[in-house]
Design brief:
By secondary structure, the protein is mainly alpha-helical. Helices cover 71% and strands 0% of the residues. Helix 5 runs antiparallel to helix 6 (70-83) and helix 5 packs across helix 8. The N and C termini lie far apart (35 Å).
C-alpha cells in the first residue's frame, strides 16, 4: 500500500479495513498504526523502542483517540506527559486525564496533529463556547496566553 493510502485509512477511521490490511501485512508497523489498531502490546513495544519522539507519540495519541481506543490513548497520554510535563499540568488543572481522553475521543479536535493535543483541546473548547454562547467557558479558554496571539486570532467554529 502507498503511504497516502495508509494515511487515508487513518483519516477515514475505517477500522475494519485497517484490521484487514494489518492481517495481510500491508500496514506499516509504526506506533501510529499500532495505536489506530488498538494493539496495546504492540504500542508498548513501540514505545520501548522509540517512545521519546514527542511528535510521533502525539500523532499516535490522536490516532488512538480517533479510533476510540481509550486504553491505548491513556498509555500514550502517560508517555506524552512524561515527555512534556507542562501538558500534564494543564490537563490536571482542567478536567483530568480520563476526561481529556474521553473529550478527544468524542470531539476529535481538528488541527490536533499540527497544534498538539493541548492547543487543539483549548481551541475546540473556545470554539464550542462561542457557538453555544457560554461566556464562562470562553473566559476559561482565554487564560491561555498563546491563544491571544496573532497566530490564533481567528478561531473557526
Amino acid at each position: 500500500m502507498t503511504p497516502s493510502a495508509c494515511e487515508g485509512l487513518l483519516k477515514s477511521r475505517a477500522r475494519d479495513c485497517c484490521s484487514c490490511f494489518q492481517h495481510k501485512g500491508l500496514l506499516p508497523l509504526t506506533l501510529k498504526f499500532q495505536s489506530a489498531l488498538g494493539d496495546l502490546d504492540a504500542v508498548r513495544a513501540a514505545l520501548d523502542e522509540d517512545g521519546n519522539d514527542l511528535a510521533a507519540v502525539n500523532e499516535a495519541f490522536i490516532c488512538a483517540s480517533r479510533f476510540a481506543h481509550e486504553t491505548v490513548a491513556s498509555l500514550l497520554l502517560e508517555r506524552l506527559i512524561a515527555l512534556d510535563p507542562e501538558l500534564g499540568r494543564h490537563i490536571e488543572e482542567s478536567r483530568g486525564r480520563l476526561a481529556f481522553i474521553k473529550y478527544f475521543i468524542e470531539k476529535r479536535p481538528p488541527h490536533a496533529t499540527a497544534l498538539g493535543p493541548w492547543k487543539a483541546f483549548v481551541m475546540e473548547q473556545v470554539s464550542r463556547a462561542i457557538r453555544e454562547r457560554d461566556l464562562e467557558a470562553f473566559v476559561r479558554g482565554q487564560r491561555e496566553p498563546w491563544l491571544l496571539g496573532e497566530a490564533f486570532a481567528v478561531v473557526s467554529g
